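Appendix B, Record 12. Input sequence as logged:
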Amino acid sequence: MTDPVASGGLDGPLSAAASPASVLRPEVLAQSAYHVADARGMVKLDAMENPYPLPEVVREAVARRLAEVAVNRYPDAACHELKQRLRAAAGVPADAGLLLGNGSDEIIQMLALAVARPGAVILGVEPSFVMFRLLAGLAGARWVGVPLRADFSLDETALQEAIERHRPALALLAYPNNPTGNLFDRAVLERVIARLPGLAVVDEAYQAFAGDSFADALARFPNLLVMRTLSKLGLAGLRLGYLMGSPAWIGELEKLRLPYNINALTQAAATAILEHPEVLEGQAAALRAARGELAAALERLPGVTVFPSAANFLLLRVKSAPRVFDALKARGVLVKLADGSHPLMEGCLRVTVSTPEENRLFLQALDESLLS
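Logged structural output:
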């Protein structure tokens, strides 16, 4: 008779009722579900969304395209038209492979599953994008997070030591980083990538606001892939991310992509919107300008420290951050409480850069909350 434990089966009497604790993997049981705050009726500044709607002419183009979608049929599994439009609009290198995901989260999940051999390590820095650690654990890999320096810069020595000790199969590095907002020193990051024995993925979710990209380094680093999303550009509701790099890597990762993962409505809408790249770039430019104005206004508030940002959000440190967060929420403004997520985030709040009116409402609410 086969031993159920040795074969990966369930231990215990056959008549015992199943429970989550008896069936689910420890990695799943140990996790908490990703929490999305209820933002109904709030000035929503917690999720780095583009606050600007699409202009009427683009919305009409999207509506016409959606009306033509045959929803009774499966979508184009290879996303031929969307990929062609995305390559042109996003400046994807001509010789690079391109993989699409249901948001960059799905791509991170594919990457983690691809490398999760027994004992495999996925490396990153901390604090950084929370989904790196979460999806590494759910895939069964071991996450190693190297702390940033107090000024949120890379600790190159600690990273090199972690690489030599753990020999990571995958490194996930955000550029700019979330939640800190800063661009890491490019020369340091390139030296780290060169030392990695496995795959390096640079997450450029905020590339439109940063003015820099590792796409031009793909040809120099055969183990490098660059990941982006359209969510921060104003298409968060469509859930579309993409990964570019060597066709050899992309071809293997395609094996983990579920069929039809990009639905027909997303394909049609994104293709229509990307025919107007100047609209998205114009909105990004407005947010880049507003970022500087908002940072300057925050620096004038007593007791507020604002950190440099190359993204569409700002990280700030205040006294009694949880109290200020609650006071802002009571005034109808929702930001992200970073305090408590990592020791380096003590006293920190993260706020999305928004429209002039919403930025004004936030500044007024913050000024009142600091005094309350």
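The first strand starts at residue 43 and ends at 44.
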